[in-house]
Design a protein that fits this description.
By secondary structure, the chain is α+β, with helices and mostly antiparallel strands. It folds into three domains: about 20-90, 2-Layer Sandwich (Dna Ligase, domain 1), CATH 3.30.1490.20; about 95-215, 2-Layer Sandwich (D-amino Acid Aminotransferase, Chain A, domain 1), CATH 3.30.470.20; about 230-380, Rossmann fold, CATH 3.40.50. It is about 40% helix and about 25% strand. Strand 11 and strand 12 (about 200) form a beta hairpin. The longest helix has 20 residues, at about 165-180. It is elongated. Bound molecules: guanosine-5'-diphosphate (GDP) and manganese (II) ion. Manganese (II) ion (MN) binds next to loops.
């Protein structure tokens, strides 16, 4: 599993590697607030697992809290190399004098950890390897005896690091190696490790942790990422299982198996599901309403397919929730409802009294919503 920059920096902090002060924001307002707390100019950084954020416009300098807000707004709306930005890290902007590169990874051929250092950090290491291969210093570490002081000294002399930096730089070598071992990493990287105000400080972090050996301390760190969107958190709070997808047809059903089957049938009919949402067994009108609210919050949703198989869940309850949601939320996209099972007759009556005609067949319902969404699009 890969960690986000802010998570990696938290681990750096735990082993004593200095990092730039900062906090994560989920909204532009939060970013503004953090910028105000930090004071001075700040850097707004997209938290995504793909590289090259800077080039993609995912890192911006803000001089004022207001500017932090507008930059956060722009960055939070971005998708970088297919990854939607859900969080930004707001850090104090630092005056960088020099940038170094430092990492530890596994050299599979040698079956040993390898430490890589360069006095020319900041840029991509693969790029650096092509342009200045002589500026990259590498050495293996014996996993049984660990990193040795003479190895670090040799690397630093070889890189012609000035005497005043030898001691603080060595400390960072040891702490990074410790992080590598302690968190069972496959890769830990600081790029850039900056010299700012005479001190060394990590500006960025990269961590890849062995999926088969995740330390208990980091249990749930990946889930936190997956459940990061505002919709997903709202769903969790309401006791609904929601997973955002990238299509245009919002899906609500009861029971994970039924919802998964619904996604398949919609895809089979040529549609693209916008989400997975399971309202669970025994859902009531209130939960149905909440579910609609969450699905409709996604601007990509151009149609809704509600697929309810009444068992413990009663169709009349679901129908009441739908009608209430329609009245309160004003559903503006086409909607197809498939309703069958417990109290089906009562449910149909409620819906029909409000101008909604439910279908009883799932395939027919899926075909119908796909047709309506596509027709709608063609007429726009
Ligand atoms: P990456 O592009 O995803 O690797 O993101 P980084 O966090 O490494 O940032 C990219 C580059 O932005 C760094 O190499 C720095 O040159 C620059 N940068 C990031 N934060 C700061 C900052 O606080 N001050 C200055 N001057 N530059 C920064
Ligand atoms: Mn970087």
């Amino acid at each position: 599993m890969r960690l986000q920059e802010y998570q990696g920096k938290e681990l750096f902090r735990r082993v004593g590697i200095p990092v730039v002060e900062g906090k994560v924001a989920l909204t532009p307002a939060e970013a503004e607030e953090i910028a105000r707390e930090l004071g001075g100019s700040v850097v707004i950084k997209a938290q995504v697992l793909v590289g090259g954020r800077g080039k993609a416009g995912g890192i911006k300098l803000a001089q004022t809290p207001q500017q932090a807000r507008t930059h956060a707004e722009t960055i939070l709306a971005m998708t970088i190399k297919g990854e939607r930005v859900r969080k930004v890290l707001v850090t104090k902007a630092v005056e960088i004098e020099r940038e170094f590169y430092l990492s530890v990874t596994v050299d599979r051929a040698a079956k040993k950890p390898i430490m890589i250092f360069s006095p020319e950090g900041g840029i991509d290491i693969e790029e650096l390897a092509k342009t200045f291969p002589e500026k990259i210093i590498k050495f293996h570490v014996d996993p049984l005896i660990g990193l040795q002081a003479y190895q670090v000294r040799t690397a630093l002399y070889q890189a012609q690091i000035e005497p005043t930096l030898i001691r603080p730089m060595s400390e960072i070598f040891f702490k990074l190696y410790q992080a590598f071992v302690q968190y069972r990493a496959q890769l830990v990287e600081i790029n850039p490790l900056a010299l700012a105000d005479g001190k060394l400080i990590a500006i960025d972090s990269k961590f890849i942790i062995d999926d088969d050996d995740v330390p208990t301390e980091l249990a749930g760190w990946e889930e936190e990422e997956l459940a990061g969107s505002a919709e997903e958190r709202a769903a969790k709070q309401a006791g609904l299982q929601y997973v955002k997808l990238d299509g245009t047809i919002g899906i609500i059903g009861n029971g994970a198996g039924l919802v998964m089957a619904t996604l398949d049938v919609v895809a089979l009919k040529g549609g693209r599901p916008a989400n997975f949402l399971d309202i669970g067994g025994g859902a009531n009108a209130e939960m149905m309403k909440k579910a609609l609210e969450i699905v409709l919050a996604d601007p990509n949703v151009h149609g809704l397919f509600i697929n309810i198989f009444g068992g413990i869940t009663r169709c009349d309850e679901v129908a009441r929730g739908l009608v209430a949601a329609q009245r309160e939320l004003g559903i503006r996209v086409p909607m197809v409802v498939r309703l069958t099972g417990t109290n089906e007759f009562e449910g149909r009556q409620i819906l029909e009294a409000h101008g909604i005609t439910p279908v009883t067949d799932m395939e027919e319902g899926a075909a119908e919503i796909v047709r309506q969404v596509i027709t709608n699009k063609n007429t726009v």
